């Protein structure tokens, strides 16, 4: 286990994706909080102070890239690494430029890629 209690916020409107990510990261020792809506992200970030945020690019109620941009524009949250998770393949550069995300993961994702990126950004 490498997570050692680091807090990860997973925001995705797909229950199955959230469950899979939660189980993978839980097995690595991370403390995972899940949200299925974009409307709660800012208040939950203020409350939880996560070490990393995994954020779906296209939530049902909001655009995840807009949430990322808002987080990166706020002094209190700008330092929290945000990893965009998206089924829109090949748009890494666009997503990162549009919202200042720290990194990007394609759906479907490889477990090792997910764990490696979370480990990298939670270690900082």
Tags for this entry?
5 helices; five-stranded parallel beta sheet; alpha/beta; Rossmann fold; 124 residues
Give structural notes.
There is one protein chain. With 124 residues, this protein is α/β, with parallel strands linked by helices. It has a single domain, classed as Response regulator (Rossmann fold, 3-Layer(aba) Sandwich). It has helices at residues 15-27, 41-48, 64-73, 92-99, 111-122, and strands at residues 7-11, 31-35, 52-56, 82-86, 103-106. The longest helix is centred in the N-terminal third of the chain and has 13 residues, at 15-27. It is globular, with a radius of gyration of 13 Å.
Number of continuous helical runs: 5
Give the terminus-to-terminus CA distance.
Answer: 17 Å
CATH topology: Rossmann fold
The name of the CATH superfamily reads: Response regulator
Q: How many beta strands in the DSSP annotation?
A: 5
Total separate domains: 1
Strand content: 15-25%
In short:
41% of the residues lie in helices and 19% in strands. By secondary structure, it is of the alpha/beta class.
Q: What does the secondary structure layout of this molecule look like, with pairings?
A:
Elements: E1 7-11, H1 15-27, E2 31-35, H2 41-48, E3 52-56, H3 64-73, E4 82-86, H4 92-99, E5 103-106, H5 111-122
Parallel strand pairs: 1-2, 1-3, 3-4, 4-5
């Amino acid at each position: 286990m490498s997570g050692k209690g680091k807090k990860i916020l997973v925001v995705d409107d797909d229950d199955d994706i959230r469950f899979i990510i939660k189980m993978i990261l839980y097995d690595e020792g991370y403390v995972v909080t899940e949200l299925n809506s974009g409307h709660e992200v800012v208040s939950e970030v203020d409350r939880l102070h996560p070490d990393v945020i995994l954020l779906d690019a296209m939530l049902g109620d909001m655009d995840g890239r807009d949430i990322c941009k808002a987080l990166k524009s706020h002094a209190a949250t700008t330092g929290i690494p945000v990893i965009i998770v998206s089924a829109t393949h090949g748009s890494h550069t666009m997503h990162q430029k549009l919202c200042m995300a720290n990194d990007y993961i394609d759906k479907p994702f490889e477990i090792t890629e997910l764990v490696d990126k979370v480990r990298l950004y939670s270690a900082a």
